[in-house]
């Protein structure tokens, strides 16, 4: 146990007051609910089954019990008419009901959000800290809780003690209970915590404020949560680090504690093993081992790509560019700087101006582009567009994005083809992925009928695509529904790279038009499709580096071969071999240092060269090379001609065949 100060005065003042207020408000709300008429309502399940229920009495848990005991025992959260809902919260009207378990994204995210409260309970009771925020992580792997500890700094030595407190809370089967409070009640309840007070004061005036309790922890939270803490059978504290309140380095310094949890010990052990494996192949570690890139204070937030990374970068560009050509895309290049009037017209200024680089040129404001979208709109608009092909595809390469302008009737076909494109590329990389259709959010723009037609087209495209997909209700962009694609690498870590987003607004903002098929009528595109596959190429490089664990496939490898002379006597021949391989377009290096051959081979293995070519006096006399293939100990003697044929076959198998895509062009 690591000795540490504990603010008992804060705990003795805050905890009993919050619990007393919570219980008082909870009792009032229960009494009020019991006075309401339990009118009959209908509950519709995903398969169309309709269940009878009682308003203000029947809960999702009651419905789950009626379906099966197994579902009731494993149900974590429900969705009622599109809104996530506690399993113990009574239903209020006729509704559509979905129930989620840990295997579902909604269930897993809720599980980890609730685990953050269990972690928060351990931190608050063990350290007397002021809790700030405790969400599940954006990567969808675990959770964290930020807290203010005064001068105390947490580190990994505190983790076991924090874990013990969390496991104690989980073992007590504490129910997660929910109440709604007024703003004044919330401010009184959390008056001892300046961070919670700030959050409350920043909430919109019409926002429903909810508070949850599990055991001694009473926390401001929108919820929902799992039924009780006993669902968490395994929990681990991963690390502790510093953070700034609301990400502002001028504000208070907080301590952030990360955790992970599962419904069983086996899953936790598997995750921790995977985490240790992942650490070995973190791109920040591999880049040091393999000298890939670096950063410099002269350009914060940027990376300098060294020659080996530049090779991968260019090969990715060659690959994706070849696919664009086969699939009928045309490349355009738009400026990096636009007058701010354009960003106002596109709507980007309203959302991003404070984070844009603004320049003043001849007393006018210009901005570096935060997104590519307006440029393609100007390209589309600069001349009359006919309806023979029905679309125009444009892209800007580094972000690997495309903008497809199409009519309402073409949405399904264009999205389906884009999904095939994404599937094709990710299969080559060895990624698995999942698909989610995100539908109309509360702050959406445009007509409901347009949204419904677009969402229907996306559903049809996904169904025709033939892979499983999930509905992510209410999480679309304000300008249109979207398909989110999350890839999983070789260690099952999830990343979002590809995206398909429908945009109803930009074509209207720019008044884009095209000639109807009879060329006598001018019409407007209904939608612009934003489409990315690689996403940020820099980020894709990092993901691929970790995915391949530094062992690049030959076609993409920056280290395809290295020639290692046994001694100075064979150096001239080594350089000749290198030059001949290089002249055929392959990436080849030569180790001409005075190190012993064993050391050269070992260094080449650590750098993950696909082929290590050892040459001595005998090889020089016969015009051959001794070939060691990565991860294989055996040496094979080959002629230079035979080696080059081998290289060509490797490149053909892993790249050229991918390019040959049978697609009927318009």
Automatic annotation (TrEMBL):
What CDD domains does UniProt report for this protein, alphabetically? Answer: TGS_ThrRS, ThrRS_anticodon, ThrRS_core
Question: Which Gene Ontology cellular-component terms appear in the entry?
Answer: chloroplast; mitochondrion
The record's annotation in Pfam families points to: HGTP_anticodon, TGS, tRNA-synt_2b, tRNA_SAD
Q: Where in the cell is it found?
A: Cytoplasm
- Record-annotated Aminoacyl-transfer RNA synthetases class-II family profile domain positions: 271-553
The UniProt record lists the TGS domain at 39-101
Q: Does the keyword Metal-binding apply?
A: yes
Q: Which UniProt keywords apply?
A: Aminoacyl-tRNA synthetase, ATP-binding, Cytoplasm, Ligase, Metal-binding, Nucleotide-binding, Protein biosynthesis, Zinc
Q: Does the keyword Transferase apply?
A: no
Q: Which reaction does it catalyse?
A: tRNA(Thr) + L-threonine + ATP = L-threonyl-tRNA(Thr) + AMP + diphosphate + H(+)
Can you provide one Gene Ontology molecular function annotated for this UniProt record? ATP binding
EC numbers, comma separated: 6.1.1.3
Name its GO BP terms in alphabetical order: threonyl-tRNA aminoacylation
Q: Provide the family line.
A: Belongs to the class-II aminoacyl-tRNA synthetase family.
The record's PANTHER family line, in alphabetical order, gives: THREONINE--TRNA LIGASE, THREONINE-TRNA LIGASE
From the Swiss-Prot or TrEMBL record, give the protein name: threonine--tRNA ligase
Q: Which organism is it from?
A: Arachis hypogaea
